[in-house]
Amino acid sequence: PETQTSGSHSKPSSAASRIKHSSLSMATVDSTNILIDVSGVELSPLEQALNQAEEIRLIHDQEMLFKKIDVFLKTFDTELLALRKEKLSVEIQLKNADLRLVTLFEELLLLKEFEKREDVLAGKVNSKMQEKLDMEFKVAECQMKIDKKRVETERQQEKEKGIHSEFLGSLGDNNKWAEFLMRVFKKKIKRTKKKVAREGDEDDDDDSDDSDSDESDWSSEEGSEEGEEVLDDSVCPPGCEQELFDLACQLREKRLDMEELIGEEKKLSDALKKEFENLSKKVKVIDNALKTAENDLEAFQLEKQQKLNELDVVVTLKLHQVQYMVNNVLPQDLSQTLVFHANGLVRLQQRIKELHHEKSEQRSKHKENRQQHVQLIKDKRFLEGKAQEWSDKCEQVMMLKFGRIVDLEKLETVGVDRNVEELKEKLRQNELRCNRDIEKWELRLEERKDRITELIRANTEKLEQYTMLLEEQKSLETFLDSKQKNLGGEYEGRRKADVRERQRLIQLVQLQAQEVEALKEEITLLSRKGGHILPPAQPPIPVPPQAI
Which residues contact 488 (CB under 8 A, 6 or more apart)? Predict the structure, then answer.
């Protein structure tokens, strides 16, 4: 195209040069020559001058047109060259896009081939993860139940300790029946369990007979075991306070109830612990299965990535980017070449220098560590000698003091720690004080509950009284209305007595209305928390019959 454009450009330039030469030749013609028209008429000097001016103008226009043509040709050649370069770049991009499309299509075929296996493995991993989450939730729930049972068991044990401390506090100091009452308190009794049976009375009688026989067997066994005891711990002996004996029996029943509750709580706790262990084993099994599934999925991903890496990828390079030379010549076979980023190459070269520096540092550190190791070995030998020397001295001292070699750790465990004992005593005293406070507050709570019950009962009575008064007021109003309607001429003589009766009834109604209002206020105060109790309302003052 460059040769064509140059040739096309040369033709107009040669034509322009010919026209230019002809115009110059015509311009150099002597002005004295006489121009003859076609018709043979001789032109005047003015006409000749006009013709020459017109010819000069036309020649100038022609030159300007040739210049414009030259500019257009140069612009066209420049744009054509730019379009050619753009066409080449677009063709390169299209070719790269085609090659990239081929690579993506190959990757798509490979991914479709691995898609089914990946879905199966991913589904297996998701199902195992869901199972693990469910089992962990169950384990957490079981752990919460175990903690709750442990707290309840500890609370019941504290109550049992409180019962024991209460019994010890009731005995007092220097009680001669303390041993007997302690035996009564700690006596084990065969207690019948309450069974909810749907059988007849005969079955109940049989069960009671069996329980009586069991109790007799239990008591006989205790009697055989404790044959040496003289006093009967089921009856209060003479000289012992009946109240203390009854209190010991009551506290024994409470203690046995608490022991039964603690035993049941322990059974439930053991069952929950077994369930927790089973769930933990299941969690471990599911965790192992999940790890296996994740490893399978990871191995599959590695295999898929390896297959994707084996696909051929086209990379467009420029000649200045190729640095693989053999004898300063680019080889024909480039199969052994490696495409590498220039910045990565620079980093690798810098890393070589860093590794040399690190190597020298590690050598110096290794030398220092060897010297330190030798010094530590010497110190170890010296300290071992010292330890052996002190061990010999210790054995000599033990032989002189005890006559044999004694284990010091066992000796420390056998000895009594005074601080620990003092702390235990403080803890016991605090427990006793806390138990007394708890009992005191429980008594106050019971008193408050009884007081609230009494107030509610009184409030109910007041409401009933209020209702009766309302009914009485309504009946009196009805009676008054009927009296007013039935007033006739036969009662005109007794008009003054009726007026007094009416005034008495009005006064009675007013008093009843005041009592009703007082009852309303008292009910409002009682319904509020912490309301004060008003004194009972005074009944209406009866009017003596003499005043009527």
Answer: none
Q: Which amino acid is at 215?
A: E
Residues 6+ away with beta carbon under 8 Å from 308: 107, 110
Tokens representing residue 187 in the block: 């006596």
As a whole number, mean pLDDT of residues 207-223 equals 42
pTM to 2 decimals?
Answer: 0.40
For residues 220 and 229, what is the distance between their CA atoms, to the nearest angstrom? 13
473 neighbors 513 (Cβ within 8 angstroms) = yes
Helix/strand/coil for 191: coil
Residues in CB range of 208: below 8 A, 6 or more apart? none
Q: What one-letter code names the amino acid at 247?
A: L
Q: Are 525 and 500 spatial neighbours (Cβ–Cβ below 8 Å)?
A: no
Q: Which residue has the tokens 């005191």?
A: 440
Tens digits of residue pLDDT in 446-464: 888 888 888 888 888 888 8
Biggest CA–CA distance in the chain, Å, is: 186
Residue bearing tokens 């420390």 = 412
Q: 263-288 pLDDT, tens per residue?
A: 888 888 888 888 888 888 888 899 89
One-character DSSP codes across 268-300: HHHHHHHHHHHHHHHHHHHHHHHHHHHHHHHHH
